[in-house]
Amino acid sequence: MSKKVLEISQSEYISYFLNSLIVKSNEKRIIVPISQIDTVLVSNPRCNISVPLLNELVAQNVNIIICDSKFKPTVQISPIQGYYSNKNFLNQINWSKDFKGFVWREIIKTKIVNYTKLIYYLDITSEEEIDKLIKYYESVLINDRSNCEGHAAKLSFKILYGANFSRDDENIINTFLDYGYTVLMTYVSRSIIKNGLDNRIGIFHKSFNNHFALSCDLMEPLRALIDKLVYTHIYIYGKKDFILFKKDLFCMFEEKIAIKNTKLSVNEYIDKIVKSVINNNLICEDFIIEWS
């Protein structure tokens, strides 16, 4: 049974009782077993959360996302220790430059091919531009030294959203993309912590101020999933309803996608990527999404 995504948009207090999350709102009392919850999204900036509830949600690996007064996700609550052993972390701090260079190449190849296949599936461009994307994919080097990722991303955005589109603009497309990418990062972060890695130690992303460096790395092959959802809402459905987009976004993580003749939920796909890095067997061909 698929677990629930619970959004707290009106209640001003949620608490814990008998393995359940208790929502109090307008003298009503709603009880949700924590075992049935995948994610808690707190979008009411006035909501108070009890400490026992936070501890139990973290203990049961529930993704906890808190939004600011503009309803943008700004906080993810994660356990300090999410794994029974330090083995994976000890291996992580000893990742070599060669290992990181190889993994980053495979991540970028996967990202580019997933976007290429998405654009081909949507049938929104010429064979010439598809060939350009394929060339970028074939040209990715160790550490992506020639920045094929940047060139492919620029072309992909142009094809999807138009020649004048810029990620710096304030518009509905970027609002949807920013929200979607941020939520995606929290799901990747949860898997990273669950598998005993440290989010602050990245493969490519490096910054003293980025506490989610590894999430930023490992989410790259999945970004096309967010773009597919955004493109579908705006250009196929012709809708700019943020509430509907948000609902479909969270449902997406339990939906099945086709990978190498098998079907995995997006959550399972995320776990598979994280474990492949741990096991040093991340190969692009194992993570290509067959769109449908």
From TrEMBL:
Residue numbers binding Mn(2+): E149, H205, E220
GO BP annotations listed: defense response to virus; maintenance of CRISPR repeat elements
Highest taxon in the source lineage: Bacteria
Top EC category: hydrolase
Molecular functions (GO terms): DNA binding; DNA endonuclease activity; hydrolase activity; metal ion binding
Keyword Nucleus included in the entry's annotation: no
HAMAP family given in the database record: Cas1
Subunit comment: Homodimer, forms a heterotetramer with a Cas2 homodimer.
Role: CRISPR (clustered regularly interspaced short palindromic repeat), is an adaptive immune system that provides protection against mobile genetic elements (viruses, transposable elements and conjugative plasmids). CRISPR clusters contain spacers, sequences complementary to antecedent mobile elements, and target invading nucleic acids. CRISPR clusters are transcribed and processed into CRISPR RNA (crRNA). Acts as a dsDNA endonuclease. Involved in the integration of spacer DNA into the CRISPR cassette.
Protein's name according to its UniProt entry: CRISPR-associated endonuclease Cas1
Organism: Mycoplasmopsis canis
